[in-house]
Structures are given as structure tokens and as C-alpha cells.
Amino acid sequence: MKAILFRPAIGLMNRLTYSHKMLAVAAVFVLALAMPIYQTVAALNADIDFTGEEVKGAEYLPPTLALLQHIQQHRGASAAFLGGDESFADVVTQKQALIEEDLRAVDAMDEKYGAEFGSRERWEALKTKWRGLQSDVKSLSADESFTRHTDLIEEILDFRVLIADASSLTLDPENDTFYLMIMVVSDYPAATEYLGQARAFGTAALGNGTIREQAAALEFMLRSSQNATRQAGEKVTKALAFNPSVRAGMERQLQEAETRQRAFLEMLEKDVINAETVTITPTEYFDAATQAIDAEFELVRALDAELDRLLAARGQRLSTSRNVVLGVVTVLTALAAWLFVGFYLAANDGLEQVKRAAAGIAEGDLNQTLEVNSQDEIGQLADAFRRMTAYLQNMAGVADKIAGGDLTGNVTLKSERDVLGNAFAQMTAYLQNVAGVADKIAGGDLTGNVTLKSERDVLGNAFAQMIANLRRAVGEVSQNASGVQSASGQLASAAAQAGQGTSQIATTIQQVARGTSQQTEGVIRTASSVEQMKRAIEGVAKGAQEQAAAVGKASNVTTQITSAIQQVQIIVQSDAQGSAQAAQEARGGAQKVAETIKGMESIKAKVGLSAAKVKEMGRRSDQIGAIVETIDDIASQT
Q1: CA nearest 89: which of 78, 100, 105, 101?
Q2: Are 448 and 435 a contacting pair, CB within 8 Å?
Q3: CA 153, CA 130: separation in Å to the nearest integer?
Q4: Buried b / exposed e across 540-549, counting CB within 10 Å, b at 16+?
Q5: pLDDT score of 512
Q6: Among 555, 562, 560, 558, residue whose Cα is nearest residue 593
Q7: pTM for the full model?
Q8: How many whole angstroms separate alpha carbon 37 and alpha carbon 47?
Q9: Nearest of 232, 195, 225, 217 to residue 72 by alpha carbon
């Protein structure tokens, strides 16, 4: 199963070099890690960008909150003024001045973010509507002023929601900031609007004395404000449950808003709506409502500041997380790359050393050293290679000794499975056996035998055949030597007989010489010839004893003796006419000489036979020499 599963990968890796394998594996790992890392960083960047958009929206909202507050105040002051209280004319003018400052602040924000949020058209429409209201306010009735102010305030509240939507505040992903956003953008501003309406409506009613007619409307505004405040309070509770640290930033404002609102609503219910006689003045009512509404706005500003803080903290946290991720990824990537490159260099260095050593051994150079000290599989490979090199060096040392003629070297076997070592040891023992037999042969001992390793043992068979041939040749030489010795004995006997005949011839010649003076010269020549023949016979006898070394010389001497005898015969025959007695004695000597010649011919035949035997011994000696040379060649090759 594994072989089938990994066969394609194995096939691919077998086609690549070691460096390309490393690059392929590194590329796959980089791609595998790059995707989740990219997605993580991209998600963090998206969250950072999202939070950044929320921060922009949170930055845009505070000027609109101030505008909302001051327009609500302008509505209340205008209602009191239009209700007949001239003292509110200056308040209306003051609020218009504050509204102008608010418009400039919102203009700055819209200039900065209006194009991005798509709010410019709506904002310009709001300003236009305010300009119309501002110019018409003193000519309107109280109800018309209330209605136009309330419509403008509703559009401001909607504009704030537009900013929240455009800046993604309404899509805030975290619970604490989401509830804070709801309270800042809509809930508490809506609660302030109910209070603001009650302020304007009640101030106008108190001013024109129609409080009884407006009691139902004021009751509705009272209940609406209470409901809005309760809903906002529930969201505060939820926000605090998700993030208790929020309470610290708005604890004072929350308590102040609750106290001021409760006091105003109690006054509205007891002293205005349900009072039998209304004694509160419009100014007192306006101030009490304004204090409650301002406390609500302070709470909204505290909530807005807390929202800004949490958004900024989130953005910082996300940026830190992204930077930490990038930093950790960078460090780990650098560390992984460092370790990977180190692993590659270490492995590649070890493999290159083993590769070079193997190439050197393949070329016959066994003087290879490996400086690999790693503890991994490559180190184990290098250690095994060192042992193999030492083993081969031991083999080479023994082989070098054998090549130099020294067969005393031994191979240290690595194990019972050491095929090469066992074969080398057997070869060494075999050569030692052959060398021992050869040494005996060199000493003249032909009794040694070579143990054949198999029928295909060429050297052993050749050596055994050589020993057999040497034994046969030595036997034949021994027989020939016996024949030569026998011939030498016969030659010596013939030489002795020839010497006796020669002595008789010499005696006869001396007698002939004493009898005739004319034959003096011939006798001298005869004596000289006889002397030569005597020396020749003695040489032949000596040569016969030295066997084959004097065979050729004995043949020549025999020829000389025959020639000398023939000369003597001629001389004797030539002198036979001079003296009958000398002739008779010469004939007797000639007969002796003839017998001597016959003996010499017999000796010559024996010598010829000896020469043939010696020649055969020479041929056998040549064969022995060739075999010895073959042995030397084999010894030098092994």
C-alpha cells in the first residue's frame, strides 16, 4: 500500500539531484505555509482596516452630537421665546452661535471623510434646512418652530446612523463595542430627544398657560423618555457584562445622568402633569430639563470616548497581533531557512565526501579520508564507508605483499558473511600451498603435490602437470646418465687397449728405427703421431669420465686417432719395402692398430648415442626452464 501510495513521489525524487530535491521540498512547504499565513495576515489586515473605518466613524460622530444638543436647546429656547417669554431671545442667539461652530466642525469632518462615507449631499441638505429654519424661527408659531426643529433633529439622528453605517460601526464584530455603538449612535440620542421634546413642549405650555391642554402630550413624552432610557440602560448592562472595564470610564456620568433624568421626570410628573396648581416657571422648567438632557449628553460623550478607546485598543491589538504574526513568521521562516540550509549543506558535504571517496576507490585510489562527524544516517554512512575503506586497504596491503612475492600476509575477516575476505584468505592459502610446492621443486624435491581446488583450477592443474613432466624428465635424464656412464666405461676400456696397442706399435717402430736409418724420418713422424694419439686417447678417457661435456671432443679426438693410425699405416706400408722384418713386425702392429680402430669405431658409436641422449636431456631442460618461467610469471601476477 505504501509503495503504491508513494510511488509517484519516489519516481519524482529519483529524477532529481539532491539540491533539486531540497528545493522542491522547500517550495512545497513554503507554499503550504504561505497560504494559511497569508490568510491569517490578510484577515488581520482586514480587521485592522475594518476597525480603522470604525475609528473614522467614531471620529465623525462627536461634532454631530454637539450639533444635535445645541439644536435641541435652540428648539426649547425658541419655544419659550415664541411662547411669549422675551428673556429667551438672547438664549436663542447664543445657541445659534454655538450651532455655527458645530456646523464648521462637521464641515471639517465631512471634508475629511464625506467622499468616503457618501455623506456630503445629505450634509449639505441638513445645512440648507438649518439655514432656512434659522432665518424663519422668529416669525414662526411655537408649533411650527417645534415641528421644523423636530424634523431637523430627526434628520440629524438619521445622519448619525448614516455615518455609523458608512463607517461599519453598525457591523461591529465585538459585543462590548457593538452595544456601546448602539447607545452612542441611537439609543441615548433618542432618549435625549424625548427629553428635549418634553423640554420644548413644556416650556412653551408653561409660557402660554396651556399646560392642562398639553398634559397628555407631556405624559406621552415622559413615558417615551423612560422607555428609551430603560432600553439604553439594558444595553449598558450588556456592554458591562461583556467588558467590565467599560464601567470605569462612564461610572460618574452614568450616575449623574440617572440622577438628573429621574429628578426632571419626577418634577414633570408631579409639578407639571399631575399638579393641581402649577407653580413652576418656564425658566425653572427649562433649566431642569436642560440639566437632565446635558447629563445624558455627557453620558453619550463618555460612552463615545469609551468606544473610541476600545476601538483604538482593538486596532492596536490587531496591529500588534499582525506584527507578532509577521515577526514570528519571519523569525521562524529565517530559522527554518537557516536550519534547512544548514541541513542541506551538512548533508550535501557528507554526501560529496562520500561521493569523492567512492569515485577515488572506483579509480583504484584507496587513500581516502572522510571528515564527516554528524550523528545522522549520513554520518553512519560515512562511518561504514571508513570501515569499508580500511577493509579494502587491508586487502590491498595483502595483495601488494603477494605481488612482491610475500605470501605471509593475512586478511582479517569481518564476519562469517565476508565473501571477499574468505575468498582472499582461500586464495592466499592456495598460493602459499603452490609456493611451498614450488620451493620444494627448486630444492630438487619433486615429492610435493598441489591440492586442486576444483576441475577448473587452471593453475593447480598446470602445476600438477608440470610436476609430472619434471618427474618424467628427471627419470629419463637418470636413465641417459646411466647409459653415458656405461659408454664411458667401455670407452675407457677401449682406450686402455688402444694404449697397449700403441705401446706395441711404438716398440715395433723403435725396432724398425734401429734397423734402418732411411726410415728415421718416418719413424719420427710415426712417434709424433703416436704421441698425439696417446694424448687424444687420454683426453677421450678423461672426457668420458666427465660425461656429456666431453662427448664432442672425444668424437674429434677419435677422428684424429683414426687419421693418425691411417698415417702410421701409410708410413708402415711405405717402409715395408725397406725391411722385411720391419714389415712383418709392422703387420703385427697394423693388426693391433686395426683392432684399435675397430674399438675406436665402437667408441664413436657409443659417443654418438651419448650425444643424442645429452641432446634429449637438453630439450627436457628447456621444458623445465619454460615451466619454471611460467611459475615465476604466475607468482608475479598473484
Answers
A1: 78
A2: no
A3: 10
A4: bbebbeebbe
A5: 45
A6: 562
A7: 0.58
A8: 15
A9: 195
